[in-house]
Hints:
The protein is α/β, with parallel strands linked by helices. Helices cover about 45% and strands about 15% of the residues. It has 11 helices and 8 strands. The chain has helices at about 10-15, 20-25, 40-50, 70-75, 80, 105-130, 140-150, 170-175, 195-200, 230-240, 245-260; strands at about 1-5, 30-35, 55-60, 90-100, 135-140, 160, 180-185, 210. Strands 4-5-6-7-8 form a 5-stranded parallel sheet. Strands 1-2-3 form a 3-stranded parallel sheet, sandwiched between helices. Strand 7 (about 180-185), helix 9 and strand 8 form a beta-alpha-beta unit. The longest helix has 25 residues, at about 105-130.
Amino acid sequence: xxxxxxxxxxxxxxxxxxxxxxxxxxxxxxxxxxxxxxxxxxxxxxxxxxxxxxxxxxxxxxxxxxxxxxxxxxxxxxxxxxxxxxxxxxxxxxxxxxxxxxxxxxxxxxxxxxxxxxxxxxxxxxxxxxxxxxxxxxxxxxxxxxxxxxxxxxxxxxxxxxxxxxxxxxxxxxxxxxxxxxxxxxxxxxxxxxxxxxxxxxxxxxxxxxxxxxxxxxxxxxxxxxxxxxxxxxxxxxxxxxxxxxxxxxxxxxxxxxxxxxxx
Length: 264
């Protein structure tokens, strides 16, 4: 059995396909799905989904760096009350920095980067106060993310860099601090040797796998809309990478995810 540690179920709900997506996931052996918050538009949706199927769906709440709008301070004020829900979110996320989706104007770029850092830091403070882990989004901003977390004093062992897409050198910096990476279908791509090296460098003790669905479908589904059922392909690839059978790898990744997110 597997846990998809990072996906976005609201995309399927909006299309009216969520029931079939969840059924296929169950048939593929994905026992639990962690659906990830990006802004207040999906926080309530995920709380409702988790309340209906608490044994199958967990969720997080967080303000994604590309979702920071003029009302960002109001949105941040809504985060802490969300942890009074039953069931409560399992983490703050996804939060972090994104230096890929930036405007062309240098002045705008600097303002956006400054605001992303402030929002990231504020959410790290909240996670420390609530004693929950964080799910980090880092795109073209790995070293900047390290700096923000280092300066925040947040406990590194409670940090996962989701969709890890850097190499073994960056993974070493994470692991030396006590953090970990989680791997998507990108690890199955032909040109992703550095990511595979990062995964083997990290090792099995902390490895987690995810789909980031509906994005980043693994081989042999690449080019299609991704979904939690496809996690099986990523897990099978990782199992072979580590010289294990699928059941053994799945048990390890599931154990790691449950421990990190305190999921029963």
